[in-house]
């Protein structure tokens, strides 16, 4: 009984491993996708694993229209733009408000108001179906200097992850059934170890799938706001203005110096004055010199 159950456990584990290897091997020809914790193996072309790679004995299913529809629903879109505005800080705030109104959110925001030329950079996440609408409205926030968008199809990678997750879940369910019928502690421990290993891999794939799905559903747009040409045009330096600023800077330095020195003058000056006064009182008076009469 024990030997038979152990062999069945090992058989189930071997079948699950071969299934995972087969899915990964079929999709090894697809390109890589740069995403946190998603390796090339994890996101290998799922469409080939699910429908069979052309020319490898597999048969493709579904019409061309269906394939195109799936591809459109699995696009990861990112974009950048550069705008010039009279007031970049205000323009960035208006852009942020428009993004939130469309259901988006601010992923990162940076503003610099120092100096004569303020700038701002805002990165937003916007629902994929609202991305183009937001891009079309960029002209409302300033003069568009440049704009670019890039879309990457990850539909096959999503299908691959889902297939691998399904295979792992089937293996976990089968091992759970076998563990319930185990007669010895050794068999139970062996089944639990296999289940734990597969559950960890399943959790990892689930996180990777959630990340890719989020990238598909929410597009990313980064916009740089800079002053317009009138604000950045060259002007003759104002000598009086620069002199006045230098005077104010030097005044600030003098005030800081006095604020640092005056307390020490008071603390050390009073004891010195008291000691000097006491020494003068103790000094004997010098007798007046009488002139000699000849």
How would you describe the overall organization of this protein?
The protein contains 9 helices and 5 strands. Residues 18-72 and 232-237 have low confidence and may be disordered. Strands 2-3-5-1-4 form a 5-stranded mixed sheet. Strand 2 and strand 3 form a beta hairpin. The longest helix has 44 residues, at 239-282. The protein folds into 2 domains: 2-71 and 154-216, no CATH class; 76-151 and 220-232, Alpha-Beta Plaits (2-Layer Sandwich). The chain has helices spanning 2-26, 46-51, 64-72, 88-101, 131-136, 155-180, 185-217, 229-232, 239-282, and strands at residues 75-85, 105-112, 119-127, 143-153, 218-227. With 294 residues, it is of the alpha+beta class.
How much of the polypeptide forms β-strand, as a percent range? 15-25%
Give the oligomeric state.
single chain
Terminal CA distance reads 149 Å
User: What fraction, in percent, of the residue positions are helical?
Assistant: 55-70%
Number of helical elements: 9
What would the average pLDDT be, to the nearest integer?
A: 75
Indicate the radius of gyration in whole angstroms.
39 Å
H-E order:
HHHEHEEHEHHEHH
Q: Tally the beta strands.
A: 5
